[in-house]
Specification:
By secondary structure, the protein is α+β, with helices and mostly antiparallel strands. It has two domains: about 1-35; about 40-144, Glutaredoxin. The protein has helices at about 1-35, 55-70, 70-75, 90-95, 115-125, 130-144, and strands at about 40-45, 80-85, 105-110, 110-115. It has a four-stranded mixed β-sheet with strand order 2-1-3-4. Helix 2 crosses helix 6 (about 130-144) and helix 5 (about 115-125) runs antiparallel to helix 6. The termini are far apart.
Length: about 140
């Protein structure tokens, strides 16, 4: 019984040590990417629980546009789309960080922030190609 306990403790310790090493390796890879000039873009769509057709269209058109325009960058993790419910308590720190009070489409890369909310709500349902064009211009400007 005592040997089993010792062996179990060693296994748990070994596994936890490996997970720390994996985390360190990921941080090193992220730092290397930063040093090589590879940028990361986070696209946030902040919304309420209840959403109208336009609110849903903003999210749908944005996700679809990013996937069509930048599939490699999405696969590589350089562009990340996040749909954020502002009413969910677990998102309060993110809402506070970006000072969001309602539906917002925000493109963030390091210190650069571009708010496309007005364009998104103007074009998502009636002219999605125009919104796609605005998204492309924004991403290209931030990532170059």
């Amino acid at each position: 019984m005592k040997k089993l306990l010792i062996i179990s403790a060693l296994i748990v310790f070994s596994i936890s040590s490996m997970s720390f090493k994996l985390t360190d390796n990921q941080e090193n890879k992220d730092n290397e990417k930063h040093l090589l000039g590879i940028k990361k873009l986070e696209v946030y769509y902040f919304h309420n629980v209840r959403r109208c057709a336009t609110c849903q269209a903003v999210e749908d058109v944005t996700k679809k546009s990013l996937k069509e325009l930048y599939p490699e960058m999405i696969t590589a993790g350089q562009i990340v789309f996040l749909s954020v419910d502002i009413e969910d308590d677990s998102n309060k720190s993110l809402v506070k960080k970006y000072q969001v009070s309602g539906q917002t489409l925000l493109f963030v890369s390091n210190s650069k922030k571009v708010n496309l909310t007005n364009d998104a709500f103007m074009y998502a349902r009636n002219n999605p190609d125009k919104l796609k064009s605005k998204i492309k211009k924004t991403v290209d400007k931030i990532m170059n």
